[in-house]
Write a structure and sequence with these properties.
8 helices, alpha/beta, Rossmann fold, seven-stranded mixed beta sheet
Length: 228
């Protein structure tokens, strides 16, 4: 006999809480519930709007939620608060997850596809995340206040990522790119005015794949906060 919806939800709570704990996250029961509510929304919208190619719920929990949770501790170590831009955010990954787990960060998700930006706006309202907003735009044309951290997940090559978003980086700001294997070729192809200063391995519980963060900054600018 299959599990009841309540039992399945309880199992998901336990699984996600265990993943968060394994990553060193001091997450509350409310934050775990909000993350699962976000997964509900993503799964529901995905049936119509094709936000992600991953459709099986358990795979979404591991490949999306757990993967994005893994960047939260490194970001929190970098700075306790700030303004973060998630470029090519798609269905709010990792931006919505970061906003859920780090309420002191102001998170803006930008995507060139209107339905994806609309989904993030709906998620921010439904999940009551006042620190999460979404913009429908190409990052190259975006204008506005600068960001302390600019991040992306499977968006573009490192060179294209930093070139397209350099005008949005605050003085002393950094880029934080989510990648699979450490991309030596992409690092070597960075513009001469950008330097990679740290590649951080990510161990994602339940995900049998290589993950890392590539930290970058304008060349000649020292880090303003600690990145291990």
């Amino acid at each position: 006999m299959s599990d009841s919806p309540d039992s399945a939800r309880a199992q998901e709570r336990l699984k996600l809480a265990a993943i968060a704990a394994a990553l060193g996250l001091d997450s509350s029961a409310h934050q775990i519930e909000v993350a699962l509510d976000f997964l509900d929304l993503l799964q529901r919208w995905n049936a119509t709007y094709n936000l992600t190619a991953v459709r099986e719920r358990e795979s979404m929990l591991t490949q999306h939620l757990a993967d994005c949770l893994s960047v939260v501790p490194p970001l929190a170590r970098h700075a306790p608060s700030g303004r973060l831009l998630d470029v090519g955010s798609g269905g709010g990954l990792p931006g919505a997850v970061i906003a859920t787990m780090l309420p002191t960060w102001e998170v803006t998700c930008v995507d060139a596809v209107s339905k994806k930006a609309a989904f993030v706006r709906q998620a921010a309202a439904a999940l009551r995340l006042p620190n999460l907003r979404a913009l429908h735009a190409r990052v190259e044309t975006l204008r506005g206040p600068a960001f302390d951290v600019v991040t992306s997940r499977a968006f573009a090559s490192l060179a294209d990522f930093v070139r397209g978003s350099a005008h949005l980086l605050a003085t002393g700001g950094v880029w934080m790119a989510m990648k699979g294997h450490p991309p030596a070729g992409e690092i070597a192809a960075l513009p001469p005015d950008v330097e990679m200063f740290h590649v951080e391995r990510l161990d994602v519980p339940g995900l049998q794949a290589h993950r890392c963060l590539v930290w970058m900054r304008p060349r000649g600018v020292g880090a303003t906060a600690c990145v291990p």
